[in-house]
Write a structure and sequence with these properties.
Layout: E1 8-11, H1 20-30, E2 34-36, H2 44-54, E3 62-67, H3 74-88, E4 93-98, H4 109-121, E5 125-131, H5 135-143, E6 150-156, H6 164-172, E7 176-180, H7 187-190, H8 192-201, H9 205-215, E8 219-222, H10 227-235, H11 243-250
Parallel strand pairs: 1-2, 1-8, 2-3, 3-4, 4-5, 5-6, 6-7, 7-8
Helix pairs in contact: 1-2, 1-10, 2-3, 3-4, 8-9
Bound molecules: NADP nicotinamide-adenine-dinucleotide phosphate (NAP).
């Protein structure tokens, strides 16, 4: 089994029904070893199918899923995990995240963490973590019993939302940052600075974006159902940006957030 979260994963949010299994299979065959799903995406069964179809041994792959914010109390969380476990059909899930914090902490994080630990004893999961937690919420979680085992905080990071304060706070607390929506809903492909840096390296703007994230020690999630895009994205791990490139990308930050639903915490 893999014991730490692999640095480059395949996302599966908003992947059209019927396309997830093929996308997972193709990514795993290209070398990806980390797949990100969520109960909310309604595609866990397809993720499990894609893994089985790929022929890659189960123990070589890291699968993350998430529990929706309205299922964080003890009983609801165990039921949610039993469902995810059954749908994925991959045995203990490598990582389960709180998808969004309980609004106004209606369910105390200590209750959720205790339920995660119980779920681990039941063989439902191996590791747990959080997503969309602000620095104060993360600090509170880390101080609760079982909090020291939180392996990641997954949140939005792109060249246009560098999220510097939260990235630094999370890393300082010893928790890995995982970035979602790195391409900012397609904006990265057209941005002049990213296009220019990409040309210099014989790369693509998407690759430049991923290399910039990796240079900050951030785990990258990119989603694609297209095998060519998956390969291009995967190859970003070989791209080394220089300090000048990184400074130019850092300057693109404008704090623009795409994921900000009504139940989001106060960023
Ligand atoms: N925790 C949370 O609240 C949360 C929120 C949002 C997302 N996430 C996770 O993070 C993952 C990544 O976010 P995202 O889905 O927004 O990913 P993304 O990689 O920023 O964007 C995915 C889109 O970009 C296109 N794309 C990817 N690579 C490309 C390339 N090389 N050239 C051209 N187009 C390309 C894809 O289309 P094609 O299929 O045509 O390539 C797809 O439409 C999600 O899938 C999900 O697993 C988590």
């Amino acid at each position: 089994m893999i014991d730490t979260i692999p640095p480059f994963g395949l996302g599966t949010f908003r992947v059209a029904a019927g396309k997830t299994a093929q996308s997972v299979k193709s990514a795993l065959q290209l070398g990806y070893r980390h797949i990100d799903t969520a109960q909310y995406y309604d595609n866990e069964a397809e993720v499990g199918q894609g893994l089985r179809d790929s022929g890659i041994p189960r123990e070589d792959v890291w699968i993350t899923t998430k529990v929706w914010w309205n299922r964080l109390s003890r009983d609801a969380l165990i039921a949610s995990l039993e469902e995810s476990h059954r749908k994925l059909g991959v045995g203990a899930i490598d990582l389960v995240l709180v998808h969004w914090p309980s609004p106004d902490s209606v369910v105390p994080i200590a209750e959720t963490l205790a339920a995660f630990q119980e779920a681990r004893k039941l063989g439902l999961l191996r590791h747990y973590g959080v997503s969309n937690f602000t620095a104060p919420l993360l600090e509170e979680a880390l101080q609760a019993p079982g909090g020291s085992e939180i392996v990641t905080n997954q949140f939005e990071v792109s060249p246009f939302l560098a999220n510097r304060a939260l990235v630094e706070a999370t890393q300082k607390l010893g928790v890995k940052v995982t970035a979602y929506m790195p391409l900012a809903e397609g904006r990265a492909h057209k941005d002049e600075t990213l296009v220019d840096i990409a040309k210099k390296h014989g790369a693509t703007p998407a690759q430049v974006t991923f290399a910039w994230l990796l240079s900050r020690g951030i785990v990258v999630l990119s989603a694609s159902t297209n095998a060519e895009h998956q390969q291009v994205n995967w190859d970003a791990q070989k791209l080394n940006l220089d300090a000048g490139d990184i400074a130019r990308i850092d300057a693109l930050d404008e704090g623009r957030r795409h994921a900000n639903p009504p139940f989001a915490p106060k960023w």
